[in-house]
């Protein structure tokens, strides 16, 4: 029995005595980071939640009737504690056959403490009925940096004034579903559900599961009944009401629907159309078929948290909703992939506590990475990984950052950060690299099927990996999940007497662990690649290798799985070599970044090559940094820039090239600027106006004035953005 389990068991006993967690009972003057955040104690288990709700738009109230079926988890009990924030209660009774037995209760405006009519055993189910009113707008709540509000239920423009649509939507994560229905609002609870929504007949509704019945009430209202026959966590319950148009798609015989405002309905397929392909890819990769009865995606106004993976019904913020013109410049494919992968990691198996959020968010971010690789190739996958690595490093100073599995935090919303998302995703990718794809995905299959419709934690993932591979993965998890930080490697290379030497120092802050890092090193010698394996396990370590002649280039960690930073003594010639001859995405972007700060001719050759890179972000970096005063590359650069400005499929690259050409003050490009202002892309129009202003501010102002209001509203922020960038 390990120490973590012992600590958990002792704390659970304390919880059993008090029926509250240590965190809830903590001294308010105590440092929150000193509190060990135990998994919520299970005294009662949710079994089924039946709701009948209607809405008062004027008061911003929800009127609810709830039939809640539960059972004691193990020990018999005569009490029930429910989370219920800011509610009024009209009736709370036990349903006993045909009898309703009134129950005694107390309420502190956050939790409802109910005394049951007798003691119940774990083999007995019981159902209570609650008639209540939820008043979310009257709640005083505070969110975190990621989830910025926690009222649970939101009315958008309920008075119907102005052009904004009238909508209702919910947001349950982390523990805000209890703002609109009484429940045990913890991620380690699972319940089936039935939600009946009575709404104005003109509105469309969406909730979890399948639409089982629609009833016309003959009074201008309609009742929609949504049934969820598989258990899911309360924070994943959702409702949405409003004037939405539904685009109907399908996957493997299941409904896949997209709910959009009428204006955006014609573009539904362009916005969400890859969803069935994603479902097929993830289902086959995990060998676990998409688990829910349907999948819907809805876009709502004023949503503050990006997107939310409610079971079978993802809610997106309005930034996802775009016209065909807007989609020329940008789409939210990564978000669509991220939320879909949650349907397995987060919904099918849910993190049992917010300390284990990595089991939800790291996987969903990892799912993004894999989708890009499947859809657009390895280079796109590597680009996505690199972006996650940079996010991770930005959240670290001197290698110091919190662990993935965090049992000490101030606020549960603090868990929604670059550690849980980005760092966790590349740690998973590194594990995949170490154990091989077949073993890795079979391990994920084992984790999902073993814990289906339940909750899971990092130890269960580790045990699944050990079951499949026969290897002890504790060292990996101890290093990457339960300790924080990331390595910073300082590398010095040398070559003498037929030997390459590597002096490696781990220079992360001394408070950060010393890492154990199995890596590969590729030596490029006279056109031949020689690969060696190394194990970095000390703060200072020297390696030597017999190599027939001095390497042209040394590529440490060619797979780029290191979740950390490398500092070495590369020169511009090394970067030119790696861009041209070892062109992984990581090597290319690092070469371009270095060349952007270097004025040598070799640097300009890298940037010249970068103008034709297959990734538009690298083309843009090269466009901004290339020095057109270098006469040796100027003609070739101008020719390529013109081609980009006129023909590039990515409008952000076209815009960058237009502005770069304008920066030369060569009046021969003025016609290009004028033509660009007539383009369909907002990026290209804005760039054209910025460029035209270099030659004639009056003509630029006139070009802007001729645009319609919608185009101006899109273009003006872009003009400001482009004018603040250096070219």
What does this structure look like?
By secondary structure, the chain is α+β, with helices and mostly antiparallel strands. A hairpin with a 3-residue loop joins strand 6 and strand 7. Helix 6 packs antiparallel against helix 7, helix 13 crosses helix 14 and helix 18 packs antiparallel against helix 19. The N terminus is likely disordered.
Backbone CA Rg: 29 Å
Separation, N- and C-terminal Cα atoms: 61 Å
**Secondary-structure-derived class:** alpha+beta
- Share in β-strands: 25-35%
Average predicted local confidence, pLDDT: 94
Instruction: Assign a percent range to the helix content.
Output: 25-40%
Principal-axis shape equals globular
Number of DSSP helices? 21
Q: Give a quick account of the main beta sheet: strands, pairing sense, barrel closure.
A: 8 strands, mixed
The beta-strand count equals: 29
The parts where pLDDT drops under 50 for at least 5 residues are: 1-26
In short:
This protein has 727 residues and is an alpha+beta fold.
Topology of helices and strands:
Elements: H1 3-18, E1 44-56, E2 61-72, E3 77-83, E4 87-96, E5 99-102, E6 104-107, E7 111-120, E8 126-134, E9 153-156, E10 167-170, E11 191-200, E12 204-207, E13 210-216, E14 221-232, E15 239-242, E16 245-251, E17 254-260, H2 268-272, H3 275-286, E18 294-300, E19 307-308, E20 313-317, H4 324-329, H5 333-341, E21 349-351, H6 358-376, H7 378-394, H8 419-435, H9 437-450, E22 454-456, H10 458-469, H11 474-480, E23 488-496, E24 499-506, E25 517-525, E26 528-536, E27 540-546, E28 553-556, E29 565-567, H12 572-581, H13 585-596, H14 601-610, H15 616-625, H16 631-647, H17 651-662, H18 670-676, H19 682-693, H20 697-705, H21 709-723
Parallel strand pairs: 1-11, 17-18, 18-20, 21-22, 23-29
Antiparallel strand pairs: 1-2, 2-8, 3-7, 4-5, 4-8, 6-7, 9-10, 10-15, 11-14, 12-15, 13-14, 16-17, 19-20, 23-24, 24-27, 25-26, 25-28
């Amino acid at each position: 029995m390990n120490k973590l389990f012992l600590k958990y068991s002792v704390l659970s006993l304390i919880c059993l005595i008090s029926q509250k967690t240590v965190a809830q009972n903590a001294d308010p003057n105590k440092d929150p980071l000193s509190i060990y955040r135990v998994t919520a104690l299970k005294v009662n288990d949710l079994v089924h939640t039946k709701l009948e709700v209607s809405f008062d738009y004027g008061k911003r109230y929800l009127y609810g009737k709830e039939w809640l079926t539960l059972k004691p988890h193990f020990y018999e009990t005569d009490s029930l504690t429910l989370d219920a924030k800011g509610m009024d209660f009209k009736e709370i009774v036990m349903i006993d056959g045909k009898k309703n037995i009134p129950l005694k209760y107390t309420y502190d405006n956050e939790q409802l403490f109910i005394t049951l009519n007798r003691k119940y055993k774990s083999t007995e189910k019981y159902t209570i009925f609650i008639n209540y009113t939820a008043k979310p707008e009257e709640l005083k709540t505070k969110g975190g940096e990621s989830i910025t509000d926690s009222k649970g239920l939101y009315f958008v423009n309920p008075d119907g004034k102005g052009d904004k649509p009238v909508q209702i939507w919910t947001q349950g994560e982390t523990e805000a579903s209890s703002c609109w229905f009484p429940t045990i609002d913890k991620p380690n609870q699972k319940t089936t559900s039935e939600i009946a929504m009575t709404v104005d007949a003109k509105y469309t509704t969406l909730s979890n599961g399948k639409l089982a019945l629609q009833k016309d009430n003959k009074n201008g209202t309609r009742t929609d009944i949504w049934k969820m026959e598989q258990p899911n966590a309360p924070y994943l319950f959702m409702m949405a009401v409003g004037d939405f148009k539904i685009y109907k798609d399908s996957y493997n015989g299941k409904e896949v629907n997209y709910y959009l405002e009428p204006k955006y309905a014609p573009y539904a397929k362009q916005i969400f159309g890859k969803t069935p392909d994603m479902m097929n890819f993830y289902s086959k990769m995990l060998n676990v078929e998409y688990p829910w009865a349907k999948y819907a995606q809805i876009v709502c106004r004023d949503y503050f948290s990006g997107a939310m993976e409610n079971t079978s019904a993802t809610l997106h913020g309005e930034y996802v909703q775009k016209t065909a013109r807007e989609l020329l410049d940008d789409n939210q494919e990564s978000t669509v992939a991220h939320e879909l992968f949650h349907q397995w990691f987060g919904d099918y198996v849910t993190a049992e506590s917010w300390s284990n959020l990595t089991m939800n968010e790291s996987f969903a971010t990892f799912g993004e990475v894999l989708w890009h690789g499947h859809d657009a190739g390895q280079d796109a996958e590597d680009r996505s990984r690199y972006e996650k690595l940079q996010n991770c490093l930005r959240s670290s100073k001197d290698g110091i950052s919190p662990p993935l599995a965090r049992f000490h935090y101030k606020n549960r919303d603090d868990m929604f950060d670059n550690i849980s998302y980005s760092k966790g995703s590349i740690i998973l990718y590194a594990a995949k690299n170490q154990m091989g794809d077949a073993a890795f995905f079979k391990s994920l299959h084992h984790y999902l099927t073993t814990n289906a419709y339940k909750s899971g934690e990092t130890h269960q993932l580790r045990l699944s990996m050990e079951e499949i591979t026969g290897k002890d993965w504790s060292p990996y998890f101890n290093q990457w999940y339960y300790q924080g930080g990331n390595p910073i490697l300082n590398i010095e290379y040398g070559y003498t007497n037929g030997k390459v030497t590597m002096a490696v120092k781990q220079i992360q802050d001394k408070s950060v662990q010393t890492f154990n890092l199995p890596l590969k090193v590729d030596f490029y010698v006279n056109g031949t690649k020689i690969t060696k394996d190394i194990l970095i396990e000390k703060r200072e370590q020297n390696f030597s290798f017999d190599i027939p002649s001095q390497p042209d280039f040394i590529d440490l960690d060619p797979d780029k799985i290191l979740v950390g930073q490398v500092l070495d003594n590369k020169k511009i010639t090394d970067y030119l070599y790696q861009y041209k001859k070892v062109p992984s995405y990581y090597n290319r972007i690092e070469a371009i970044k270095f060349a952007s700060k270097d004025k040598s001719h070799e640097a300009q050759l890298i940037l010249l090559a970068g103008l034709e890179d297959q990734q538009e972000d690298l083309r843009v970096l090269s466009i901004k940094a290339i020095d057109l005063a270098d006469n040796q590359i100027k003609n070739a650069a101008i020719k390529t820039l013109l081609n980009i400005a006129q023909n590039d499929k990515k409008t952000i690259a076209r815009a960058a090239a237009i502005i770069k050409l304008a920066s030369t003050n060569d009046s021969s490009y003025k016609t290009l600027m004028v033509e660009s202002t007539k383009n369909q892309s907002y990026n290209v129009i804005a760039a054209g106006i910025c460029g035209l202003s270099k030659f004639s501010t009056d003509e630029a102002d006139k070009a802007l004035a001729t645009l319609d209001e919608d185009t101006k509203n899109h273009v003006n922020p872009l003009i400001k953005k482009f004018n603040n960038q250096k070219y």
